[in-house]
Amino acid sequence: MDELLAMASDVSTPRPRPTEAPGEAPAPGMVWIPGGTFTMGSSFEHFPEEHPPHPVTVDGFWMDVHTVTNEDYTRFVRATGYVTVAERPIDPAVFPDLKPEQLLPGSLVFKQPPGRVDITNLSNWWKFIPGASWRRPEGPGSDVSKRRKHPVVHLAWEDVEAYATWGGKEIATEAEWEFAARGGLEGATYTWGEEFAPGGKMMANTWQGEFPWQNFKSDGYARTAPVGSFPPNGYGLRDMAGNVWEWTSDFYTPQHGVEEMCSCCTPANPRVMSVEQSFDEHDPGAAHIPRKVIKGGSHLCAPNYCWRYRPAARQAQMVDSGMSHIGFRGIIRPA
Predict the structure, then answer these.
(1) Closest C-alpha to 85, from 174, 161, 141, 150
(2) Which of 20, 47, 280, 318 has the fewest CB within 10 Å, making it most exposed?
(3) Cβ atoms 41, 312 nearer than 8 A
(4) Is residue 74 helix, strand or coil?
(5) Is the dihedral of CA 245, 10, 219, 236 positive or negative?
(6) Residue 165 and residue 158: Cα distance in Å, rounded?
(7) Mind listing the pLDDT tens digit for each residue in 194-219?
(8) What pTM does this model have?
(9) What b/e string do you get for 199-217 counting C-beta neighbours within 10 Å, with b at 16 or more?
């Protein structure tokens, strides 16, 4: 363990530049992410679910430069007629205790309170809005016509898989995503280094002020930003911190696994947890819904509440629903 912690303390050590890609990109807007070994997770001054730091090896792969946009998802829906989970009525057989008005399709939307609130109660800023979906991010009266280049949101895991399959892509494992997000910086706090705003320059779309009521918008955005609005990381990837959380393909566990920590390497698709292991032991009422790992933080992350716009940070998301601050991007692994 001491050796692993020592590895994690080597902050901002530049890794070699990406090795030569195996040919042309298999799809437009993708970059090659080299394989390699890195220290996944973080040490004990951060959140417990990031522990322990441990070496992981991934193979090289291609990754979308930016998250899938509203424009991208529109093309998919027009081509396939796909209807997302948030647009479908809720099955009363699955939720027999809900009232008819609670069975309307919709999704969770962030609503900024007018003043300080109890930050242990998420209902102070998250509201289920009937009619909210990827087409109408804030519910009826909103649309994406002027947000074509913004990340698509309000997608459940099923919706993400459907798009990826249509495009001939997959979703990265947690290890692949974190390796790519680090951009060649071993152990750095952020995807760009150690200083949050080097030279006063904002490097990601996050929350400035006291969450959830006070947002100074120093980065220029109150909600999502158009993809590519901030500098790329060392691999040329945009928005691997902030803007929107991103789905990964791994089931969530409260801590990195011991067998992962002790191994010298893992395959390209490392240890995937069983559905049973992904349940939330602190939320028995939702224990039947598996959770996936999401990474990268979002425009709602602030130091006083959610300092998770870091590559090591991770969070759980139920597979049956999206939210107004979760998106995704695809990868292609060489055959």
Answers:
(1) 161
(2) 20
(3) yes
(4) helix
(5) negative
(6) 11
(7) 999 999 999 999 999 999 999 999 99
(8) 0.87
(9) eeebbbbbbeeebbeebee
Instruction: Give the residue-averaged pLDDT of 237-265.
Output: 79
| Distance, CA of 76 to CA of 54 (rounded, Å) | 38
Per DSSP, helices labelled H in 109-257 are 157-166, 174-182
Largest CA distance in the chain: 58
Supply the pLDDT for residue 46: 83
Of the candidates 236, 228, 233, 220, which has an alpha carbon nearest to the alpha carbon of residue 310?
Answer: 233
Domain ranges for the chain, please list them: 2-332
CATH entry, 2-332, from 3.90.1580.10, 3.40.190.10, 2.40.50.100, 3.40.50.300: 3.90.1580.10
DSSP string computed for 273-297: PPTGGGS-TT-GGGTTS-EEEEES-
3 pLDDT band (50/70/90 cuts)? very low
Displacement of CA 236 from its chain's centroid (Å): 18
Beta strands 13-14; 54-58: pairing state: unpaired
pLDDT digits (tens, 9 = 90+) for 35-66: 899 999 998 678 999 999 999 999 999 999 99
Nearest partner of 72 among 334, 333, 324, 327, judged by Cα:
327
Structure tokens at 102: 């609670």
d(CA 73, CA 85): 14
Nearest to 265 by CA among 78, 52, 57, 112: 57
